[in-house]
Amino acid sequence: MTISMYQASVPSLIRSLNNLALILEKGATHAEAKKIESNVLIGSRLYPDMLPLSKQIQIASDIARRGAARLAGLDAPAMADNETTFAELIDRIHNTIAYLNTLTPAQIDGSEEKEIVLQMGKEAMSFKGMPYLLYFILPNVYFHVTTAYAILRHNGVEVGKMDFLGKPS
Questions:
Q1: Cα 119–121–124 angle (5° rounding)?
Q2: Residue 117: φ, ψ to 5°
Q3: Which residues have CB under 8 Å from 8's CB, separation 6+?
Q4: Is 91 domain-assigned?
Q5: What are the beta bridge partners of residue 116?
Q6: How far from 19 is each of 57, 118, 146, 150, CA to CA, in Å?
Q7: Beta bridge partners of 123
Q8: What is the per-residue pLDDT across 101-157, written as a single tens digit (0 to 9) for each?
Q9: Are 93 and 116 contacting, i.e. CB atoms less than 8 angstroms apart?
Q10: How far apart are the C-alpha atoms of 71 and 38, rounded to whole Å?
Q11: How many domains would you assign to the chain?
């Protein structure tokens, strides 16, 4: 049995982002229950030189949205990085998922050898489609979702491994 580029990308990204939204909901509930200003958690970092929770969410959203769009040969819709509340961050995730749900297998399947060039400042990174998905998109999304999870867990939010993994399908 083979797995298509669509099957390896869009459902996995949607699952991770849905789990992230649920983790953020637990963060919001925790902040409210403990009378913690939500901006304290949203601005939290694991270490001073790391990005805060809000930026982890924005980057996970950007990588998922832009990555899938590149595989499909499309321009992803822009999103401003201006979220300051749990509700806004959750809404961003839901908007990203809604966009991913517009993509079809016909748009992404067959992109295994597609040339993808990312401009990273003055440097350009070049990938074929499959390595771009397997070695850039998925690991980046998982990294930022994991870091968001870890920031909230570090701040006392009661989340566990199953929150990250989600319920079995």
A1: 35
A2: -120, 125
A3: 133, 134
A4: yes
A5: 127
A6: 12, 27, 11, 14
A7: 120
A8: 999 999 999 999 999 999 889 999 999 999 999 999 999 999 999 999 999 999 999
A9: no
A10: 36
A11: 1
